[in-house]
Write a structure and sequence with these properties.
This protein is α/β, with parallel strands linked by helices and about 325 residues long. About 40% of the residues lie in helices and about 15% in strands. InterPro entries: Metallo-B-lactamas, RibonucZ/Hydroxyglut_hydro, Sec-metab_biosynth-thioest, WH-like_DNA-bd_sf.
Length: about 325
């Protein structure tokens, strides 16, 4: 069921319903908006089902276009909500964070990245309402409570720390992990963290999906497509090329660069000057994730004792 995301170029989230003797179980739920709720309700009605019949909602990851309506479905139906334990912890954190704390966090993150003079109020998207706290948590390999079905959770971190793909026989619900045409955003927040490597995790997760073989992919955006394994390897190759290009860029610069300077020099789907402040912030997050992977591999280094943080090639 395509559930609209108002004002977003992605257009919609594909919500899936799996039949079970206790009632349908949803894979994701869509954005928390009246138009989205109407589309979800109408989609069920077209199948002769009422939202009140839903038994459970499995959320592939905590982002609002996936988890946003899960709470409303639970209110109407009494359904359980499940997501990976890592994303459930983030939801707990989000629900306890005040708006001014979120704004201050973003401002300091941008400053340390070298985004001098940037107006944080326009660089940060309007904060969506945090999703509902899940009732259940999942781990890699868990069998989800869908009676009569062997729906298995596969932990695929990268896009979020707790992103899940879900295998049902010869099909794989891929969430945002593997999409047929675009690649998901993989960023690091705050930009200068050293304790995580989300892109490294994402690349390993792509290999994990490729090992599942040529399953039919049921993604959360765009369209259903065959051979998820081949597409996973294609996305991995894309990021390896970006990593090589970024390492070459740092070598040729001859001097340490801030995350913001590096992001401005990278290739995006539009020229840097044409990106809105918010999109520049997302691009910086993705640049930071690539820098962190190169650092973890020992191909570049972080300059110590400087603020904002800077990176350089090892031989610089």
């Amino acid at each position: 069921m395509p559930v609209p995301i108002p004002g977003n170029p992605l257009g919609y989230t594909l919500v899936y319903a799996i039949e079970s003797p206790r009632g349908p179980v949803l894979i994701d739920a869509g954005w928390n908006h009246p138009d989205a709720w109407e589309a979800l309700s109408d989609g069920f009605a077209a199948l002769g089902i009422d939202v009140a019949d839903v038994y459970g909602v499995v959320v592939t990851h905590f982002h609002p276009d996936h988890a946003g309506l899960a709470g409303q479905v639970r209110e109407v139906s009494g359904a359980w909500i499940a997501m990976h334990e890592a994303d459930a912890a983030i939801v707990t954190l989000m629900r306890g964070l005040a708006d001014d704390e979120h704004r201050d966090f973003q401002a300091e993150m941008l400053r340390r990245a070298g985004a001098e003079g940037l107006d944080v109020s326009v660089a940060v998207a309007e904060r969506p309402v945090p999703p509902a706290q899940p009732d259940r948590t999942l781990r890699d390999g868990d069998i989800v409570d869908v009676p009569g079905r062997g729906l298995r959770a596969i932990h695929t971190p990268g896009h979020t720390p707790g992103h899940l793909c879900l295998r049902l026989e010869d099909r794989l619900f891929t969430g945002d992990h593997v999409l047929p045409d675009i690649t998901p955003h993989v960023g690091i927040y705050p930009y200068d963290r050293t304790d995580v490597d989300p892109l490294g995790d994402f690349l390993k997760s792509l290999e994990k999906v490729a090992e599942q073989g040529p399953l039919t992919a049921l993604p959360a955006h765009e369209w259903i497509f065959p051979d998820v394994g081949a597409r996973a390897l294609q996305i991995r190759h894309h990021h390896e090329e970006r990593l090589h290009t970024l390492a070459t860029l740092l070598t040729s610069s001859g001097e340490p660069l801030t995350i913001w300077e590096i992001a401005a020099m990278m290739t995006w789907n539009r020229a840097w000057d044409d990106l809105s402040p918010m999109l520049r912030g997302l691009a910086a997050g993705e640049a930071a994730a690539h820098l962190r992977t190169l650092e973890a591999r020992g191909e570049i280094r972080r300059v110590s004792g400087v603020d904002p943080v800077r990176f350089q090639a090892l031989d610089s």
